[in-house]
Amino acid sequence: MSYILNIETATKNCSVSLAKDGITVLYQEIAEQGYSHAEKLHVFIEDILKKSQVNFQEIKAIAVSKGPGSYTGLRIGVSTAKGLCYALGIPLISVDTLQVLAQQVSVENGLIVPMLDARRMEVYSAVFDSNHHKIMEVQAEVLTDKSYADITETIYIVGDCQEKCQTVLTAANFNFLPEVIFPSAKEMSALSFAKFLQNEFEDVAYFEPFYLKDFMLPTKK
Q: Cis ω on the peptide bond leading into residue 68 (within 30° of 0)?
């Protein structure tokens, strides 16, 4: 029996889940107040373990959403995951944030395009087929009316930037799914367990989040 603790802090939401053998999600906690990660994350972890009656010594690995996403959110999630792994002597697993987002969509045909807001008309995006296989790598792109113009298949857009997407992505094959906005630790469970079985672990000392873009500090006027 393998318990894996999943941590997702790449966006405004903060979520934690505890999964057994990658199939059964015992508990999940979500904060939707917006960037309350530092306040909520450790409380969520303690609450989930208490509710599930699982102690830290029973956890086999910690999985963290690696990005892209919020610089601060990723730092908090990854720092917490690394600290727990080091203290408990267990492996660290990283999961692609956009893959976690795409995992929430089930379609028979077409392409799934998870997108996260990167300010102005820029987004972090990737493309998955209907079986959730990645067919276009993660990128930071500026959306225009020419984006994805060479694709004739139905495109399902998910993520937190749908309002601005709809101003430029107006072709008939775009299908926006507003009910899927943020990645969730619950959807990480199958992905993290698959990596656990393959021993796909990160170096706890040197692992860094996948920021995709350099962090820019605002300058004073």
A: yes
